[in-house]
Design a protein that fits this description.
By secondary structure, the chain is α/β, with parallel strands linked by helices. Helices cover 29% and strands 25% of the residues. The protein has 14 helices and 24 strands. A 9-stranded mixed β-sheet has the order 2-1-10-9-11-12-13-14-15. It is globular and about 70 Å long. The mean pLDDT is 95. Bound molecules: malonyl-coenzyme A and adenosine monophosphate.
Length: 491
């Protein structure tokens, strides 16, 4: 089934209800509200415009646009015409976008490549469709057809497109809607970006399945979120949202009287933040775990014990196991690499069958690269990552990609990029460099990185050394560097 057909069933009963409330509004109300009817009609209009541009079922539509209600309608429009939605971080530079565009070979590129034949901005696309009564068709799709390709960085520094099917999205949305107890009257406060799984799929799908009102913010601002909390019942965020709310003077239970659920994910929620949040507000944040390739995988329970430092239990129909280096499942409580299987699991990496095969077991389990223990009761505790990944404020940064850019800079002989503890973002990016001649100024490094690397990936601390620590195999010992520079941000 087409995911949009499922959503439409819910929308059709709620055409007059508020869907997205967006700051602004010329009437002085402080917000512009789109009803579910308006959202449905706008998605039909975008679908019509995309069809006119030749988008047929299965064609990719690459999108790099700022967050807005129109952007949501565009996403739904792509689903509706059977296209494959390929969202990109708005921070990506032209060089990064060029890679994705070349890789995904989209029929249409919205928001980028304005001068190219496939490029169009979102307003122009909107005006290309018939203003009235765009045909309300929803292209039939089978469960295995692709709904989206979401790029996720690779350890080799090359991004891979995770192919996500309608089944993946539908199964995950229905499961989360149920286990998180969505009910009539729920209002979601949405401050996440909509180019990643968390803000686009997890948050929007659960709210839309519920025909809930969504207080839709362009970006996270702690003061603004606090101001809007009393009109909401659910907030979903990365850990930084919660630590920043706690940093608001006087923030506490009075701000949270209407809230029934705070959800955290995409990066580890520090036990101290969980504890402080409970002490100040009385709320135990519900932590869940997921990834681009599998949507949501585990969740702490809505009813039942939410244990700090754990990510809870597998979602319905999701199987997990922790596996040792010999490939055998480790005993309960011991640490292994987490492998998972279920209707949420993606269809593979776009154009990379060998890479897909490397990360899939013969019995259909996917190797997540996360290290975890699973208790006797099935509760999962993540203890680290086997993959060389930094997560800053919920955004992933792959060291290899940053090292490749640094190594291109004249005067840099070699580099090693690591994550260091960061009070606000969880981890911050640190570069350790070996000079070729005189060390390069930080500003020169920054300018060089600006040319091809999104700002959130930039190291904000640079250290020059005579040589990088290596093991007997000649491999850089990142654990040594992580220890040496652990106070880079918070020292
Ligand atoms: C912004 N900056 C960051 C950053 N966000 N640097 C490192 N890490 C980040 N996450 C930099 C900008 O480049 C800029 O630098 C400066 O910080 C200020 O930018 P800003 O836009 O004002 O930032 P801010 O409002 O502080 O944003 C922080 C944030 C945001 C935490 C609110 O990053 C955010 O919304 N993160 C959510 C990420 C997310 O949705 N992840 C889900 C992935 S899905 P300069 O130099 O340019 O001035 C997934 C699966 C799952 O992982 O399980 O959910
Ligand atoms: P992404 O590639 O953006 O999909 O990021 C997925 C990765 O984020 C996972 O493989 C985990 O390493 C990490 N992650 C997601 N949720 C959590 C969580 N609750 N705690 C710790 N790590 C998490």
């Amino acid at each position: 089934m087409n995911l949009y057909a499922l959503l439409y069933e819910r929308f059709a009963a709620a055409f007059d209800w508020p869907a997205l409330a967006w700051p602004g509004g010329e009437d002085g109300s402080g917000s512009v509200t789109w009803t579910y009817g308006a959202l449905d009609r706008a998605s039909a209009r975008f679908a019509a415009a995309l069809r006119r541009r030749g988008v047929a079922p299965g064609d990719r539509v690459l999108v790099q646009v700022p967050k807005s209600p129109e952007a949501v309608a565009l996403y739904l429009g792509v689903l509706r015409c059977g296209g494959v939605y390929v969202p990109l971080n708005t921070a990506y530079t032209e060089r990064e976008v060029a890679f994705f565009s070349g890789d995904a070979s989209p029929r249409v590129v919205v928001g980028a490549e304005a001068d190219g034949p496939r490029g169009v901005d979102i307003d122009a696309l909107w005006s290309e469709a018939p203003a009235q009564n765009a045909e309300p068709t929803i292209e039939p799709r089978s469960d295995d057809d692709l709904a989206a390709i979401c790029y996720t960085s690779g350890t080799t520094g090359r991004s891979k497109g995770a192919m996500i099917t309608h089944r993946n999205l539908i199964s995950n949305a229905l499961a989360l809607h149920r286990i998180w107890g969505f009910e009539p009257g729920d209002v979601l406060l949405h401050a996440l970006p909509i180019f990643h799984v968390h803000g686009l799929f997890v948050a929007l799908h659960t709210a839309f399945l519920n025909a809930s009102k969504v207080l839709f913010l362009p970006h996270f601002d702690a003061g603004e979120v606090r101001r809007l909390l009393p009109g909401a019942t659910v907030l979903m965020g990365v850990p930084t949202f919660y630590s920043r709310l706690l940093a608001e003077p006087g923030f506490g239970s009075a701000d949270c009287e209407t809230i029934r659920l705070f959800v955290s994910g995409s990066a580890p929620l520090a036990e101290a933040v969980f504890g402080d949040f409970q002490a100040r507000t009385g709320h135990r944040i519900l932590e869940r775990y997921g990834m681009t390739e599998a949507g949501m995988i585990t969740s702490n329970p809505l009813d039942g014990e939410r244990v700090a430092g754990t990510v809870g239990f597998p979602l319905p129909d999701v199987e997990i196991r922790a596996v040792g280096e010999d490939g055998a499942e480790v005993p309960a409580g011991e640490v292994g690499t987490l492998e998972i299987r279920g209707p949420n699991l993606f269809a593979g990496y776009w154009g990379l069958p060998d890479k897909t095969a490397e990360e899939m077991r013969g019995d259909g389990f996917f190797v997540t690269g996360d290290l975890a223990s699973v208790s006797d009761e099935g509760r999962v505790t993540l203890v680290g990552r086997g993959k060389d990944l930094i997560i800053a404020g919920g955004f992933n940064v792959y060291p290899k990609e940053v090292e490749d850019r640094l190594d291109e800079v004249v005067g840099v002989a070699e580099s090693a990029v690591i994550g260091a503890p960061h009070a606000d973002l969880g981890e911050g990016v640190v570069a350790v460099l070996v000079a070729e001649g005189a060390p390069v100024e930080d500003d020169t490094l920054r300018a060089a990185l600006d040319a091809g690397l999104a700002r959130y990936k930039h190291p904000r601390r640079f250290y020059w050394v005579d040589e990088l620590p290596r093991n007997a195999m000649g491999k850089v010992q990142k654990n040594v560097l992580r220890e040496r520079y652990r106070d880079a941000y918070d020292g």
